[in-house]
Amino acid sequence: MRLLGAVETVTGATTRVEMGGKRLLVDCGIAQGRDARDWVFPEAAADVDAVVLTHGHLDHIGGLPMLLDSDFDKPLLATAATLEIARISLEDALELQRASRREIEWFLKRFDRLSKPVPYDKAGVAINNLGLNLTFREAGHILGSASVDIVGANSRVIISGDLGRPNSPILKDAFTGWPDSLPVDVVVMESTYGSRDHEHSHDDIEATLMRVVKDVVAHKGKLFIPAFAIGRTQVLLWFLNKLVESKQLPKVPVAIDTPMGLLVTETYQKFSKLYDREALQRVQHGEDPLDFENLFAVRKGRDSWRLMDAPGPMIIIAGSGMVTGGRIVRHLADGLPDPKNTLLFVGHQSVGTTGRRIQELAKEGRTVWLDGQEVPIRARIETLRGLSAHADRGELAAWLSHIKKVKRVALHHGEVSAQNDLVTYLKTGAPPTAGGPPPAGGPAGDDHDHGAHAHGHDRPGRS
Asked: What does pTM read for this prediction?
């Protein structure tokens, strides 16, 4: 087994597994953020017999256009929800890279032809007559996310993918009923938050949302929320739905002004059978936990422009999550100078992004460059903490404890400090620190229009 990406960093997850002379690629991600310029597509990723995808975030699938462009003609295996989200995400990424429509259609046609959906918990799915068996287990990170159990004639490997937090909205918890009939040669586990424990609860999130929304309504202003299209937008809608339906929030229009976020939300609704028990019960009673009164979908660009002329109070959720592009840029260029308005960040703002600059410059009462102009920052700036889609160190350790007969654990998808701290925690059961800062580039699995960084190193992870 070789880690080809996300070795000592967070993004670029790409793992090559060799069993009985056969070769699998688990994920095919790209590096994101400040180190993306040093990243190259690893040659060893192309010479494989099949690709297995754990979920649809770009740091796990973004290398697929390069792989398929090299005449790769082997199956792409994933849950049906992951394949649909991956298709949406990759089409959007190619458009941002200014690929021609002809190039995009060629890729999508090839992607569709190679895609092979695999259901959760179907034990021993044969992989293309390779003599290898695959089982997908719920990972609880985003819709369709999976951990992968791969069994050959003489070996077994489990790869965690990105693991979500227990009791998160909408999604089921990560699978813990691992069979122990066979020993596990290697567990490859993510370590994004290996240095820390999450401090904020769902009650904290609801309290912050209520306070911020009520303040905006009182001032008849607008609440701007930069949104990550996959996962974060849907969780926000879940919390807003809960607060609206329980009448804890005043009536206020909510505009979803992110085309990709709308497509992913529709995918969530399409695959609602994957929801957790609470969300499923609401669906079975005729409710949609991602929809509520006064929620509006903004699909056309001209309707997005009209939002700027609409009076407050209003909530506008728009991409991108770190204000690195998308419709949120023009909304903030228009709305940041008005002290009646509020900007609510719902994820870590990576160093070098516009979102991070706004956070820093707002403290000094300065201006920020947006949409080709200097914009004064007079709106209130807030941050909603606690929406991480990644398990913390205690939750990672708990997940690992359910896998028996493990011979070796390899850590990837984390900064070096997080990996070292998690090793200490796993060995001693005690945290080596009081909880470090977020990963240097921000948690990749949470924030997907940026990411941390990864290199195409061809060597094992920390174990």
From this structure: 0.90
